[in-house]
Amino acid sequence: MRHEDHVTEDDVQIRWLIRRDFDEVQTIDRTATRPFGWPLLLDIMSQRTAIGRVAECRLTHEIVGLKLERFHTRAIELVYLAVLPGARRNGIATRLLDNCKSRLLAHHEWHRGSLKQRNRIVCDMDATIVDLHCTLAGNRFRVLSVDNDADRYRFVWLPCFERE
User: Fold this and answer.
1) Cβ contacts of residue 13 below 8 Å, gap of 6+?
2) Mean pLDDT of all residues in 79-107
3) In the list 94, 98, 157, 161, which could disulfide-bond 121, CB 3.0-4.6 Å?
């Protein structure tokens, strides 16, 4: 039994994605409900406006979760979010989302009053990934629109959602 079967949100630290993590990131992608594929992940990670963060187990240093985000003028776009199957339903995706929210709130404080401030997190998710929809809803993301042609939902998170 691998350690990831017992990992909880308190057992992980969120840190920058680095090159030596690529093998474990490929494993996470292969086990994802909707894998992106390594070429697409590399393409996203090579963009100047994109960053990657991983959830790493403090005890074993295994990578158990991954998020990729892209920065736009008015929003942070959550491009990819995945957790290893054995570590799911333990709050790891919530920790990754909280990291994204805290980055937005820090940016919001720094640029208060600026017309160019980022003020939301958006993500487009396949309509068939119900577990992810529940995770997003549980973290106060709301469905902004539905693209029936592509069978996708656009979720959004705004800081005011936390005060409700």
Assistant:
1) 55, 56, 58
2) 90
3) 157
Strand partners, 92: none
Can you say whether residue 134 is alpha, beta or left, with left for phi > 0 and alpha for psi between -120 and 50 degrees? alpha
| Average pLDDT for 114-121 | 74
In whole angstroms, give the CA distance from residue 46 to residue 56. Answer: 21
Query: Distances from the Cα of 152 to the Cαs of 30, 31, 117, 125, 133, in angstroms?
Result: 21, 21, 27, 5, 11
**More confident site: 10 or 125:** 125
Residues 6+ apart with CB under 8 A from 164: 140
Q: Closest Cα partner for 142 from 125, 128, 129?
A: 125
**Domains annotated on the chain, with CATH:** 3-163 (3.40.630.30)
**C-beta of residue 31 within 8 angstroms of C-beta of residue 88:** no
Greatest extent of the chain over all pairs of C-alpha atoms, in Å: 52
**Residue 153, number of CB atoms within 10 A of its CB:** 20
For the CA atoms of 46, 51, 52, 58, what is the dihedral angle to 10 degrees?
130
| Token pair 């979720």: residue | 155
| Percentage of the residues of the chain whose pLDDT score is greater than 70 | 87
The per-residue pLDDT for 4 is 46
